Amino acid sequence: KPNIIWFRRDLRLSDQAAVIAAASEGPVIPVYILDDETPKHRKMGGASRWWLHHSLASLAQRLEEKGSRLILRSGDSAEILANIARQTGAIKIHALRHYEPWWLNAESHLQGALDDECELVLHDGNYLQPAGAITTGSGDPYKIYTPFWKALRETMPPPEPQPVPQQINAPNSWPDGDDLNDWELLPTKPNWATGFAENWKPGEDGARVNLDAFVDIAKQYDEGRNLPSEQLVSRLSPHLHFGEISPNHIWHRVTGKDPAAFKSVETYLKELVWRDYAQNVIYQCPQYGGESYREKMRDLPWRDLNDTDVQADFEAWSQGKTGYPIVDAGMRELWATGWMHNRVRMIASSFLIKHLLIDWREGEKWFWDTLVDADYGSNTVNWQWGAGTGVDSNMFVRIMAPLTQSEKFNAGDYIRKWVPELVNLDDPYIHDPEEHGCRPNSYPTKIIAHKKGRQRALDAYAKVK
Ligand code: FAD
């Protein structure tokens, strides 16, 4: 009797515990379900759908090379899986664990919908540790990052990554499946994703290419990670989000065999662990994306997006036309490639929340739709961190000065790349052309002066602190 593999955000064959378990037990039916119903308003955004299309195509090809195939279906995951299990007489559904609240719901619906003959078996492997596993001495989950990191580090290194099974046996007959192209995950008119294809190769092979490239420069990460003009970060986030590579694999590859190497790449591993931390936060607070965690911050007098001038500010931010070159470069990189450098994400999000006093949830929504790595845990945790509304930070008053940040982290080349109106400006003028009197007419004036925006944010905060 066959086993089903239920793929979600774990679109790989190597170091994939559900694949290994299913393949070792007999014939296998690999299934991916495009489920826009279960996550409700959290269904995947446009950029993620682009990635998903290519990632599924790549996974299907890998399975075919093993004599298997990927069955595609769309609709309610629990219902569809229960039906496939009934039709095919499957005895187990193997899946990797995920922590988005909608997946936890889907799992419990599925358990209720399955006949007695079939069971859902959940495996770990998308994170260095399962969410909820790292606890304080008194058994409570951590809320703050640094003690979480220290406790998790003690449990490392993770298990060695497992290879792809030699064989994945086909069942006697295959259930029906959809054609990937019929899902229309790719944009048509206008095709906003041409820059995506130039920058990314979704799938396991693409993940390996980025990891290989990063290993050579990993020792420069500590200093290089803040420099958007340089290519000194790993660009693995969408691959990790879609589970095309396991974090265990990355940990082992980056640290190598030499225990002394750990120190030189510790900063990188610490960032990788932010991803685990974010899952722990949404596991403890499933509604993290819905409202500010800190109750008093829910009363912060955000500007109302129904007002036309606020709408215009939001539009200027999202289109990269704020008159702040570093913010505009970041927002245009995001639109063109589906990704933005972390330092610039911090600057651009701070600008929206503080200088424009627009609710962090609006920015989070924009990122959700436009990032190829849009991730419920990482996105909401980072937005709430920046807004000072979250579990771990109450630093609303830490207002980043975009122009100072731009200079400090040498963003000149980055700006010249993404803001063509400023291509002829040299450092240091490029960071603030308006102030230096060299703003080209084609480039917008600042939508708000730094001091004015800063003061308005502080006044708003004074009302709730
Ligand atoms: P590297 O610097 O090479 O880091 C390696 C890996 O560690 C990343 O691939 C990522 O998986 C993880 N990581 C690094 N920093 C963080 C972090 N702060 N939080 C969580 N994980 C981290 N990351 C997402 O994956 N999805 C998101 O939706 C997301 N939204 C963000 C929103 C805001 C406002 C901010 C400030 C950050 C957000 N991040 C998000 C975190 C971070 O910006 C990206 O993970 C990182 O830029 C990805 O590039 P990289 O793979 O080169 O990262």
Automatic annotation (TrEMBL):
Keyword Lyase included in the entry's annotation: yes
SUPFAM superfamilies: Cryptochrome/photolyase FAD-binding domain, Cryptochrome/photolyase, N-terminal domain
Record-linked InterPro entries: Crypto/Photolyase_FAD-like_sf (IPR036134), Crypto/Photolyase_N_sf (IPR036155), Cryptochr/Photolyase_FAD-bd (IPR005101), Cryptochrome/DNA_photolyase_1 (IPR002081), DNA_photolyase_1_CS_C (IPR018394), DNA_photolyase_N (IPR006050), Rossmann-like_a/b/a_fold (IPR014729)
Gene3D superfamilies listed in its UniProt record: 1.25.40.80, DNA Cyclobutane Dipyrimidine Photolyase, subunit A, domain 3, HUPs
Domain Photolyase/cryptochrome alpha/beta: 1-128
Presence of the UniProt keyword Flavoprotein in the record: yes
Site (Electron transfer via tryptophanyl radical): 302, 360, 383
Keywords linked to the UniProt accession: Chromophore, FAD, Flavoprotein, Lyase
Free-text comment on the cofactor: Binds 1 FAD per subunit.
Record-listed FAD binding positions: 221, 268, 373-375
GO biological process: nucleobase-containing compound metabolic process; response to light stimulus; response to stress
Any one GO molecular-function label of the UniProt entry: DNA binding
Co-factor(s): FAD; (6R)-5,10-methylene-5,6,7,8-tetrahydrofolate
Assigned protein family: Belongs to the DNA photolyase family.
Name of the protein this chain belongs to: Deoxyribodipyrimidine photo-lyase
